[in-house]
Amino acid sequence: MNDKSIDIELVERTIQPEAQNFEHQPVSDHSPMHDQTTQMRSSAYHWYVVIICMVAYILSFVDRQILSLMIEPIKHDLMLSDTQFSLLQGLAFSLFYAVMGVPIAALADKKSRIKIIAIGIAFWSFATAACGLSKNFLQMFLSRLGVGAGEAALSPAFYSIVADLFPKEKLGRALGLYAIGAFIGSGLAFLIGGYVIGLLKNVNLVTLPLIGEIKTWQLTFMIVGLPGVLLALLMILTVREPERKGLKIGQDGQVVKASFKNSIAFIKTHKKTFFCHFIGFSFYTMMLYALLGWAPAFYMRNHGLDASQTGYILGIIILVANTSGALFCGWLIDWFSKRGYSDAAIRSGMIGCAALIIPSVLFTQVDNIYLSFALIFVAMFFSTFPIPASAAATQMLTPNQLRAQVSAKFLLVSNLIALGIGTTAVALITDKYFQNTVMVGNSISIVNAVAGVLGTFLLYKGCQYYRDSIQVEKAAEHL
């Protein structure tokens, strides 16, 4: 046996006992392996919370969006003009959605956000079903107010929760995943509505126990409304309130209270930033609602599609284009963040708004229906950016105890401008200027052109203001 083989044998004898001892050593509760398993479980739970809130967001958009597909039978049975219908679609919903969001958000910054979301889901689900019982404009208007009031509980509370679950470099993707709920919901609203309308196209009245005879569009509201009650119960049973992180400390060394006054003071401290953020994203969102709210009417009136065909086609476009757009925006925000851009969210919003202008204006101006579908597909992709981008910008700047309230104030402004004014502006231009319902496509183009230019300009200006605000808050943390 040579010297080299003796050396190898000696090394093996030395190493093997240590390896055997290591293999039989029990894993400590505090070992790296245990910590990694715990971290993976925690991460999976955090994504579960996002997913269940996304499902709630899906239901909320099904409940609010299905109205636009049933525009013709509702107008006929309730004897409404385009302007009256736009009030049901826009103002009736956005009024309480925006206004009720402020006091509900104040509770969310102090009390259990999970319970607030669950109660809101159940409330708007019953209100949606109540839309199916409406016999006139006033009853439908009040039911839509209820839908808005219930849905006001979801987004501000969720935005506060998600910032406690994820670090900033993952916040964009989490908000992007949540945001796709809006577009899965809108797509399903068109698909489900199209299917039900097609299924019941030869049926005018349906008889229900205790309720009596109702129209098929009324039955549709009941079908899409009630599943939310089960989701509310699931949330209460499976989701726990997360620990609050990132609380702001005042100059006196005490935690700043979660009050309406302090949220206003914080907004005033960064007034240029929030002006560009609130108004810029509101104009951007106006374009989204003009597309979602009036594209069905455009295709039915100008290209001869029926409600069922329109529902299927737009439903597929929204499910593919809008969901991929929201996820892309979330990725883009994180991509900018990892490269050191403190204005990552505002910057992503500005890019999306600029890219949306041309396709959102042109899809109503081309004669070829397939080219129109191609253009609205591109428009729908970029129309999704304001939801994750505006939310990420707010959460990255705002301290924990004020996040829900600042988010609610943004939603107040955004929905009054985007949903309340935007959808009604399309109807008013059609009714008062063109005085011809077939010209709704031109009205969409006018609103989108003006809103797109204003939104892009404000978000461009907002990037610098936002970077300055981030520096101010970082400096305050080190005082």
Automatic annotation (TrEMBL):
Entry keywords, A to Z: Membrane, Transmembrane, Transmembrane helix, Transport
InterPro entries reported in the protein's UniProt record: MFS, MFS_dom, MFS_spinster-like, MFS_trans_sf
Record bears the keyword Transcription: no
Annotated ranges, domain Major facilitator superfamily (MFS) profile: 49-467
Subcellular location: Membrane
Organism, scientific name: Acinetobacter tandoii DSM 14970 = CIP 107469
Segments crossing the lipid bilayer: 45-64, 85-108, 114-134, 175-197, 217-239, 274-292, 312-333, 345-363, 369-389, 410-429, 441-460
One Pfam assignment: MFS_1
Membrane topology summary: Multi-pass membrane protein
GO cellular component assignments: membrane
Source organism, top-level taxon: Bacteria
Gene Ontology terms, MF aspect: transmembrane transporter activity
Protein name, UniProt field: Major facilitator superfamily (MFS) profile domain-containing protein
Broad class of the protein's primary localization: membrane
